[in-house]
Amino acid sequence: MTTATIYDVAREARVSMATVSRVVNNNPNVKATTRARVQEVIERLKYTPNAVARGLASKKSTTIGIVLPDIADLASAEAVSGIESVANMYKYNIILANSCSDKEMEKEIFQSFQSKQVDGILYLGHSISEESRGLLKKLNIPVVLSGNLGSDDTFYSVNIDYEKASYDITGELLKHGREKIAIVISSFESPKAQRMIAGYKRAYAENKKSLDSNLIIEGYKSYKDASNGLLTTIQKNKANVVLTMFDEVAISVLHQAQDKDLKIPSDFEIVSFENTKLLDITRPKISSVFHPIFDVGAVAMRTLTKIIDIEKARSKGQEITEEDWAGLEEDKKEIQLPHRVVHRQTTK
Fold this sequence. Notes:
Blueprint: H1 6-13, H2 17-24, H3 32-45, H4 51-58, E1 63-68, H5 74-89, E2 93-98, H6 103-115, E3 120-123, H7 130-139, E4 143-146, E5 156-160, H8 162-175, E6 181-185, H9 191-206, E7 216-218, H10 223-226, H11 230-236, E8 241-244, H12 247-259, E9 269-272, E10 287-290, H13 293-315, E11 334-337, E12 340-342
Parallel strand pairs: 1-2, 1-3, 3-4, 4-5, 5-11, 6-7, 6-8, 8-9, 9-10
Antiparallel strand pairs: 10-12
Helix pairs in contact: 1-2, 1-3, 5-13, 6-7, 8-9
C-alpha cells in the first residue's frame, strides 16, 4: 500500500499544499470549513505528516538528535530507553546517530542535525572534544551530555558523582585490608577518568596508605583492548583488586583471571563502574558501582526539554518563571544522581 503524501491530501481536498501544511501545523489562518475538509481527507487517506517536513514550515521539528559512541553499546542502549520514555511523554521524536567514537564523524552528525532543524541534542559519547564543543556552541542548539562530562560548564550534564563513587569503593576496600588496588581508565584526558582518579587518590590519602602511581592504568575501553595482557600488567604491580571504568574491561580481566586459575574473589577482586546488564550474566557475577543508566538518560531528556522551553520563551521575549527553572540551576550545570556499591560475587 502506497503511503499518502501531502500532495495527495491537497489534491483530494482541492486546496494547495501550503494550506495542508497550515492545517497540519495548527495555523489559525485557515477557514473552519476548509480545515474540516482537509482534516477529513487526512483521516481518510491515513496521511502521517513527516516531523522534519513539519519543522521546515514551523521552524519546530519536535525532534531530538542523539549521538551514540557505538550503537551496539549496552550502556548507550539502556540510556536511550530512558530517553525514549521521556521523549514519548513530551511528544518528541528522536534521531539516533552512531559516531563510532570518531570525532570527524561527530562533526558531520552535528551539522546534519542542524540541517534537520532538531530542537536539541543529547550527547552520549564517552568524552566531548574541544573542537566538537566549539562547533556545538556555534550551531546554537541546546545540548545536554548524558552519562559523561564536559571539561567546563558549557553544557548541562547528567551523571553520578564519579569522584565520590571512586572514593567510596576505594575507601571501603582499603578499610578491609586491600592496599594494592589498581584502577583502569580509558584516558587521562577523560574528565570522567580524572574524577575517578581524584576520588581514588583522596581515599588513599585519608586512609594514610601509600599509593603506587603504576596502579593507575590508562588505555582500556573494550574487551579486546583489555585482552592484550591487562591482567599481567595489573599483577606485575602486585595488585589483587582492580576497579575498571567499563564493564567489558572487567569481564576481560575476569576471563584472564579464570584462565590463570585464580580464585575469584579470594585471590583477585574486580569492581566495574559502568553497571550494564552484562555484569549479571557473567559467572561469577561482577561487583559494581551502581550507575542508574536508564535514569541518567531519562533525566537528561527531561533537562533538555526544559532548556528548549526556556530558550523558546527567551526568543519570544517572555518572562522565565521559577517553575520553568524547576530542577535546574543556571550557574550549576552538572546534575548528579545517587550511586551505591553493589557487591555481587567478585568482591569478598
